[in-house]
Amino acid sequence: MEVWVYDAFRVDFIRNIKDPEKPATLEELEVVSEDSIKIKPSTPSCISVIQVEFNPTVPHCNLATIIGLCIRIKLERALVDPFKLDIYIKEGTHSTEEEINKQINDKERVAAAMENPNLRSLVEQCIIEEE
Question: What is the reported pTM?
């Protein structure tokens, strides 16, 4: 039996990510919430699995891939323990959710996206912490 736990502490890492298009954070827009992150605790021989589910603001959100990329990059930089990160659009909330889920969970596509200077700059602007 798989045991998943909600970890409100972890949402602190992503709650202040800025929306790429609106002057608000993902938490303010209810794209992410405390229920967005589930963690399957690690066993002595395994790594933890962190599952993040986000809810785009509209079913045809053309920046959903960027939002997913921002969540992935922010968590990869913030977490130090070994983990597997799965990021998904909440089922039924986006017209192309399957395609986007594949993109944001494919290491090669993520690496290629971050090599693009324009995308990298946009992601950096969205994930930067303000004082």
Answer: 0.89
